[in-house]
Amino acid sequence: MSATIFFVMEPSMEPKHAKYHRLIAHCQTLAPMPTAVAHPCDRSSLESAVEAARKGLIVPILVGPRARIESIAAECELPIIGYQIVDAPFSEASAAAAAQLVREGKAEALMKGSLHTDELMAAVVRRDAGLRTGRRVSHCFVMDVPAHADPLIVTDAAVNIAPTLEDKADILQNAVDLAHALQFPEVRVAILSAMETVNPKVPSTIEAAALCKMVDRRQIRGALVDGPLALDNAINPDAARIKQINSPVAGRANVLMVPDLEAGNMLAKSLSFLAGADAAGIVLGARVPIILTSRADSLITRLASCAVAALVATARREAAKIVG
Q1: Residue 194: which of 184, 208, 181 has the closest Cα?
Q2: Model's pTM, two decimal places?
Q3: Which of 28, 85, 117, 286 has the fewest Cβ atoms within 10 Å of its own Cβ atom?
């Protein structure tokens, strides 16, 4: 995302959610994205779909038990007249039917409703009828951290528990591709560990070094990448200077790749609950972007997740035209 969209003034002067409001406003200039919403059977998930449609971000296809969806809409006074409803009896069937809409070319994105994340992802990764590509599926948070000028992409904090080096290569490329879809002027990735030196006793430092060499050999493309880096010298220029780390990434990273899910989950939640950050979530590596929302998310964060997916879908559409 260009500087004119993501940040305009000094971050300390910006109101809360400013980056997300600009992100959403930008995506309102795009054509709304047909989106299969899997099992929107509570207020939070149905409200997210309705409000994203009202903002012009998506065209929702509601997939789930029709009577239940209509009952919740009436109870919560959410207008769903005119939206297509695909009747499915229970959550797993809803996930399967939503994936089928993608395979049929009727939807350009999936959106999680009130079903469990594992149920949705099981339909995505099924070998016989899923939405797999040659790329490992991974999750990214696009985080709006108050008092920090740049948005931060954090990966992977939700899908891959203990990724191998091969997995991490895909996770890294997914995050780089996302940053380009968000129109980052320059993509700067820090491969995080507990330290900035390679230590044979700390496997994440060795894998970070290997990933950097893969970048050198153009096995991973599209970004400046450095690691291992500790969190402080990845995002704080003074910390990088004190440690005498001479790197175009150190102190300036806008993509943070963590060693495993535990580290990513703790980092993202620390930013959210201690630094007041918002965390829009998206899953990449499948045939379409997958919008993951939580009942704990604010409405603005859920809308931002839709906006991020819209930009990813737009980037894929444009890339397909070039290839075609």
Answers
A1: 208
A2: 0.92
A3: 28
Same domain for 24 and 53, yes or no, is: yes
Percent of residues, the chain, with pLDDT higher than 70: 95
Residue 170 lies in a domain: yes
Give pLDDT tens digits for 27-37.
999 999 999 99
Residue type, 20: Y
Q: Are 211 and 71 contained in the same domain?
A: no
pLDDT tens sequence across 72-122: 999 999 999 999 999 999 999 999 999 999 999 999 999 999 999 999 999
- Residue type at 131? L
Angle at 67 between CA 66 and CA 72, to 5 degrees: 100
CATH, residue 160: 3.40.718.10
Q: How many domains does the chain have?
A: 2
12 belongs to a structural domain: no
Q: Which domain holds residue 224?
A: 133-285
And the tokens for 30?
């795009």
